[in-house]
Amino acid sequence: MIKRTLHYLWGRKFVILLLALTVILLPNAIGHDLQVRTTTVITEMTIERTADEIIITAKKFKPSAGAESASDETITLQGTDVREILADVSLAHCRNIQFNGEPDLEILHKLYHYQDLRGNTPVNDENTVNELLKSHDCYCQ
Q: Is there a contact between 135 and 123 (Cβ–Cβ < 8 Å)?
């Protein structure tokens, strides 16, 4: 009887492999936290440069269990280097960037090449990041 069962299972190698992978990988997928709970997701931000310091006031996506609509929370980040300030955030969902006054091309260039900021993100509700960097010869593929 055992010999027949082993022979039957040996003929179903693919099913056994699939079952083994499911048993091994499923607990990791279920127990893994959502990225939005472990990473700050910025949806909009205002950037202000005063002398050597950069102050970023941003709307952060705030997940809430069971809520039908998304909510935002305002945070303030400051420092001297935009790469250090935004090192632990995601800009992939950023819908708008505001500057007090003219857009700072140095900051935009660093954001474009360092973070996951989309090139079609509007800046000061006018041009996109790509358009601004192209028009000032700062654009690099």
A: no
